[in-house]
Amino acid sequence: MVHHLHIQKACVNDALFLLNVNIVVIILGIDPSLVSTGWGIISISDSMVNYIDSGVIKTVSKDSLVLKLGQISLMVEKLITNFNPFHIAMEEVFVNKNYSSSVTLIQARGAIMSVIGRYNIDFSEYAPNKIKKAIVGAGKAEKHQVQQMVKLLMHIKKAISKDESDALATAYTASVNHQIKII
C-alpha cells in the first residue's frame, strides 16, 4: 500500500466534518554497497511500523564500475516507482582504512542519491551507530543483534540478509528520529 490520505466525510448542514483520518507513510531504507545494496520498505500507520518488503541489489563482480552504478540506480528507481515512498533513509558513509572501498561506497551512494534527487523525495541519512542505537539500544551492537531486533520489531518470520536488516533498520531509524512532514 502506498502512502495515502484516507478521509471519510459527512455532510451536515453544508459543513464537512472529519470523521476518520488514516495516514500511511511508506519509507524506503537503503544500506548502500557496490556489491550488495540492501533495501527495505516499511509503512507507518497509526504509530505502528509495519514490514512491507526487502531485498538486495546484487551487481556482477566482472562488470565495470559504470555498469554496477547504472544497475544500482536503475533498481533504486524501480523501487521508487513500485512502492512510491514518501521518505528515503540511507546509512551515512564512513571512511575506513581501505581508501578504495570507501571511494566505491561513496560512488554507490552518489548513484542512489541522484535518483532520489530526480524524484525529489524527502531524504535523511544516519550514522551506523545511530541506527544501531535506535534498533538495539546500543551504538556498538553487532550486525546479528541488529538483524534479530529488526525481525522482532517488525514481526518478520522469513530469513533476511544482513544487508536487508541494515536497510530496514535505517528505515526504522528514520521513522523514529526524523520528523517526517506529511503536509
TrEMBL record:
**What SUPFAM superfamilies does the record point to?**
Ribonuclease H-like
Q: What keywords tag this UniProt record?
A: Cytoplasm, DNA damage, DNA recombination, DNA repair, DNA-binding, Endonuclease, Hydrolase, Magnesium, Metal-binding, Nuclease
Q: Where does Mg(2+) 1 bind?
A: D31, D163
One Pfam entry name: RuvC
* An MF annotation (GO) of this entry: DNA binding
Q: Which CDD domains match?
A: RuvC
**Protein's cellular compartments:** Cytoplasm
The record's Gene Ontology biological-process terms are: DNA recombination; DNA repair; SOS response
Q: In the Enzyme Commission scheme, what number(s) does this protein have?
A: 3.1.21.10
Give residues annotated as binding Mg(2+) 2.
Answer: E91
Q: How is the cofactor bound?
A: Binds 2 Mg(2+) ion per subunit.
Catalysed reactions, semicolon-separated = Endonucleolytic cleavage at a junction such as a reciprocal single-stranded crossover between two homologous DNA duplexes (Holliday junction)
Q: What does this protein do?
A: The RuvA-RuvB-RuvC complex processes Holliday junction (HJ) DNA during genetic recombination and DNA repair. Endonuclease that resolves HJ intermediates. Cleaves cruciform DNA by making single-stranded nicks across the HJ at symmetrical positions within the homologous arms, yielding a 5'-phosphate and a 3'-hydroxyl group; requires a central core of homology in the junction. The consensus cleavage sequence is 5'-(A/T)TT(C/G)-3'. Cleavage occurs on the 3'-side of the TT dinucleotide at the point of strand exchange.
Q: HAMAP family in the record, alphabetically?
A: RuvC
Return the similarity comment: Belongs to the RuvC family.
Q: Which named protein is this? A: Crossover junction endodeoxyribonuclease RuvC
Q: Which organism is it from?
A: Orientia tsutsugamushi (Rickettsia tsutsugamushi)
Q: Which gene encodes it?
A: ruvC
